[in-house]
């Protein structure tokens, strides 16, 4: 015998509650490699929806004397990931008695990210620094550890605004008129300030301050550059 | 993918000193498949007034036909050329009329008024007018790569560009912007509207 | 096509609704609606009643998603010589609803031969918005001075109306209201009134990402209206030490057409 069918309106639908473990806290990260220097920068605004949670939360962290990392995306994941990387780098120093090279840090970050392939850190990372030969190097990542060495890269909420600009004025795509001399460190620094002030005008999640790390053979220098607060 | 992005394409307008530029890409696609590479999206309304229509191609065509008709009616009734500002208002009302069943297009208008002052206009697909401040932000963008184009213009535009400088700026902004968008590209066409002539140049770009 | 069809007759056209619904049902354009990129005015708008009249304030940012579409748009609209209106919500709706109401009020003035009352404008607006059941997404702050004195109202997109001595609306409304709650007093003088609204809008600009750029203020008193466009300005954009520009010959082109513009005797675009 068939069970009597209950009218659907009387049947309570199962309640489903979901936990959303990710949030996007916005922000833009940028790195540019020169012949013997690297500049890595990110704005310091922490936002959620239409609210500013903090105006001075750094996204860039110095990992070794010649390596920095910048991450946008979910701030909680960023903090955890950067802390974990610092720990691993410290352990490396103790075990091997030497500092980790930038390409080694880059490879380790990729492994760390892929390790969490099915519950990823919601972060979009950039690693910048000097390689073993003292040349500037930049590494760009997706959230699960696919990475690439580049001359320049940008990630985060303002990436669509900045990326074509770098293609155009750093890589000189779409023209035969390439300048013969490469940009100096100071000129590149000025370019980074220009880029962030333009992105800050148009992207609501980019603003407040830019933390700029300049890495060259003398070590790492930090500079803060103010952006609009609105 | 939004329906406004179905066919792809982008338009950009930029103001100079007594001149104004309007440019578009040439791609025509169906989602990620490219169907044609010679689809320009900028139309001439009269000698000193151009309109670019980004968005769904079928609506571009319909809207352009309606505009031509309305413009013909205007010149018959008024026996004069339409002022760019009036034309902007006309486009805006035509779009807002269909507020609840819109055309999926974003127009960009570029023209010179009778004092040879540049006029730029853009709107969203329901006709919210955007008239940029010519002293600080003399550019408008529309299409599938608005963010890229806006980023370029925000950095590269400056006041009082001469026609040749304007050509270089608008061209480089458009090429750089569309290269980072897979729904736009395949070359570009640039119109520089000057008081005495209109220069139309076809650009080479990445063909992918 | 018949010409008569093309003569504007006013009102909305629903010709494309069926087609658009079909388009949406067809291919998979993702879960989000195909209608998604309308320009919004994220907005902080506010108003207060002071001793002699009304102060209205607004920021000047218009956004499209996370991008700033317009850095200096005008959100305080004219309704009548003695009535002004701040708009938040979908930019096209605010623009058109206020424009339509301004012309209806002009006709009203010509018909009745006297100054419009604020309540007239508010009633007409709320009835219009109610008719469209919230689909015309305009959130308004209407302020003015008429024969009954100064008055201030807010109208929500669904047509509900509030009358209060100090009001805010838009995404920055909480930030602005915090300032009003702390600083508003009855019978404020003119300058403290203006300064309070400035502070409220500035609070929206600073704390709400949907609002930004400059502060616009309109003061309405029985003596007349004073409009301050960009009363407080955002700090100017950073001036580069090495400005970038493209030298001539940067861009290759393979085809050039130069069309001469026909010079028409007299002014072609005259009047």
Quick recap:
Chain A: This is Proteasome subunit beta. The complex is a heterotrimer of chains A (230), B (208) and C (271). With 208 residues, chain B is of the alpha+beta class.
Work out the helicity level of chain B.
25-40%
Instruction: Give the H and E element order of chain B.
Output: EEEEEEHHEEEEHHEE
Indicate the CATH architecture of chain B.
4-Layer Sandwich
CATH class of chain A: Alpha Beta
Taking strands numbered 1, 2, ... along the chain, how are they ordered across the largest sheet of chain B? Answer: 10-1-2-11-12
Secondary structure class of chain A reads: alpha+beta
Distance between the termini of chain B: 20 Å
Largest sheet of chain A, order of strands side by side? 10-1-2-11-12
Mean pLDDT of chain B: 95
The shape of chain B is globular
Subcellular location (chain C): Cytoplasm; Nucleus
Main location (chain C): cytoplasm
Keywords (chain C): Cytoplasm, Hydrolase, Nucleus, Protease, Proteasome, Threonine protease
Protein name (chain C): Proteasome subunit beta
Helix/strand layout:
The complex is a heterotrimer of chains A (230), B (208) and C (271).
Chain A (H helix, E strand, L loop, with lengths): L27 E6 L3 E7 L2 E3 L2 E4 L5 E5 L2 E7 L1 H22 L5 H14 L7 E8 L5 E6 L5 E4 L1 E5 L2 H11 L15 H18 L6 E8 L2 E8 L4
Antiparallel strand pairs in A: 1-2, 1-10, 2-11, 3-4, 5-6, 6-7, 7-8, 8-9, 11-12
Chain B lengths: L9 E6 L4 E6 L2 E3 L2 E4 L5 E5 L2 E7 L1 H22 L5 H14 L7 E8 L5 E6 L5 E2 L8 E5 L2 H11 L6 H17 L8 E6 L3 E7 L5
Helix pairs in contact in B: 3-4
Chain C lengths: L2 H4 L10 H9 L14 E2 L3 E5 L4 E5 L3 E3 L2 E4 L5 E5 L2 E8 H22 L5 H14 L6 E9 L2 E7 L5 E3 L2 E4 L3 H11 L6 H18 L7 E7 L2 E9 L20 E8 L11
Antiparallel strand pairs in C: 1-7, 2-3, 2-11, 3-12, 4-5, 6-7, 7-8, 8-9, 9-10, 12-13
Helix pairs in contact in C: 5-6
